Amino acid sequence: xxxxxxxxxxxxxxxxxxxxxxxxxxxxxxxxxxxxxxxxxxxxxxxxxxxxxxxxxxxxxxxxxxxxxxxxxxxxxxxxxxxxxxxxxxxxxxxxxxxxxxxxxxxxxxxxxxxxxxxxxxxxxxxxxxxxxxxxxxxxxxxxxxxxxxxxxxxxxxxxxxxxxxxxxxxxxxxxxxxxxxxxxxxxxxxxxxxxxxxxxxxxxxxxxxxxxxxxxxxxxxxxxxxxxxxxxxxxxxxxxxxxxxxxxxxxxxxxxxxxxxxxxxxxxxxxxxxxxxxxxxxxxxxxxxxxxxxxxxxxxxxxxxxxxxxxxxxxxxxxxxxxxxxxxxxxxxxxxxxxxxxxxxxxxxxxxxxxxxxxxx
Length: 362
Ligand code: SF4
Prior knowledge:
Blueprint: H1 6-13, H2 18-25, H3 31-46, E1 49-52, E2 54-59, H4 85-97, E3 102-107, H5 115-128, E4 133-137, H6 143-152, E5 156-158, H7 166-172, H8 179-192, E6 195-202, H9 209-222, E7 226-231, H10 248-261, H11 271-276, H12 280-286, E8 291-292, H13 299-302, H14 318-331, E9 335-337, H15 354-357
Parallel strand pairs: 1-8, 1-9, 2-3, 3-4, 4-5, 5-6, 6-7
Bound molecules: iron/sulfur cluster.
């Protein structure tokens, strides 16, 4: 019998050699022990708590053309919408009454929302809900813009790097976008003081095990507070319409790996996971995730924010969504909590530049 035990090694060292990563990523042999070790780790740090984030998708306009995305600028069939500041605030009112203490404002890269307008929106939320976290997910911006939103009261920022391999990035994005700028944004956000979230799609077109290893290595350097991964899901209005969606098992395997690599991290069981499998989010929690992000957007616009096809939870009112998720979380053996849900052990967050931190591990 082989003495090779990558789960134990990962748990102890929080790292593997490239060869061991490859074996672990490409086999289902260790999935059960990975999930058990990841669940132990999350319970050690976060107990059975699952944090709820109220997601407000306030605009599906985007100036970019990422080849995998259903709301890309080039998709002429997308029906576009924007929410006003008042509509966004009323989503927050509803969310607050339901117990949400984090609001996630997400949109495509939509120039309609100038920095002045975004700061007005953030300031208004901050003034009305001083006990809540404000998370932004607005894509790539100038450093000064990120700083202005932070000064207006935003605390967290989500920006998935999507892939850390330059050649792979080129296959997923047009020439107007660059991995270098995406990384610049992430380090700017850290330096400014945000709790930063990054992450990647699992099973995106042209992704290889080597790409995934680079993703893990990039995250090891960045040390994000939040790590969001979800399966790539095909959308017919994109150049990748013929590519298959990513797999549930590999996504779950990677959630467990991320929990062992980053014990302190906030890791969502994503809606995309729930879209590819009816129990996807519950399985994500059992694999090591500790956050869910129910939708607070008005029901009339929910279906229109279709980054990918067949997205779940587009028909229910926020209160129904919350109740449904709470039951699902309890059935999986965890507890949905009303809490701002900051990352634990923020002192473990490292200085922004990887070269300064190369030898630091929490
Ligand atoms: S992935 Fe984001 S930046 Fe790219 S087209 Fe979609 S909404 Fe725009």
